Amino acid sequence: MSKLGQWVLNITAGVFFFFLFFLFMFPFDSIVQYFLSQVETNTNGAYRITVSEIKPSLLFKTVFKNFQLHHRGQNGDEIWIDMPEVRVGFHYLPLLAHRFQASFVAKGKKGEMDGHFSLLFSDLSLTEGDFSTEIDGIQFSDLPFLYTGVGDSLVGSIDGKIDLSLDSDHVNRNSGLIELKFKNVSMPAGRFSPYPGFDIDLPDTVLTDAKGGIFSAKMDAGKMEIKAVSLTGGDLILNLAGKLQINKKLPLSRFNLDGTFQLSKKLEDAFPFIIVVDKQKNEDGSYPISFSGHFSKVQIQVGTFEVLK
Prior knowledge:
By secondary structure, the chain is mostly beta strands. The protein has helices spanning 3-25, 28-42, 265-270; strands at residues 47-50, 53-55, 62-73, 76-91, 99-107, 112-122, 125-139, 155-167, 175-187, 190-195, 198-202, 205-206, 213-220, 223-231, 236-245, 254-263, 287-294, 297-302, 305-308. The protein has one domain (28-249, 265-281). The protein is 14% helix and 53% strand.
């Protein structure tokens, strides 16, 4: 072998072994822990992430075991996301511009979510975010934030897709689509608290059968058109549609939803006020219902009867 060939071979071997040493010895786990801690710092403690184990990787997806996203609510710490395993592939160069980009696969107790997200931080605050995911058989127990205030748990699965682009400083730039389908959803007996001070004790309740229910919405220029909220095949048959005007301060966001509902005999017994609104019933046996107001102050009306104001 020529001296030039030997020199090239030595350089190549040196680079290879340096890179190998870099992969095995570089403290990626410390870096990942740092970025996880920044979630709590950048949200002033409103959100934090906990995991039981981290398997970091530079070239492949970093594995998080028992991933939980916590939210500090009025009643203390709430778990909003609870996944047995989340795999995240980080993009490192965007970090130089304070942008956090990654692809992910979140494995639930049965199904999984596959997608990507991009978050932009400015002055230690989250200002912009893009989120896209395909959902296949995820359980409600994997996403507890979906049933906050609706008892201890919901049983059932979720399929669909979410594609959102959000700007916290300029809500008129928010856009996206949400298309979800719910299957075999039920709620165990317990106290239903959809709104502070409005509590109802419910029996075991079936919300959808195998054919499922749907949630379909489109967002553009900070306004969300809720095309359909539908529950079928259970103790509650519900159909709603309307609009949501998003405010920079989320509790001040305004909404207006109109539709109809029907209750099984079991639920009619649990809602004593239904006797009061019996004259509001439509010819098909359903009741007209509307939801309006701000997130912080919900108004519910059945026909001309105000249930909650």
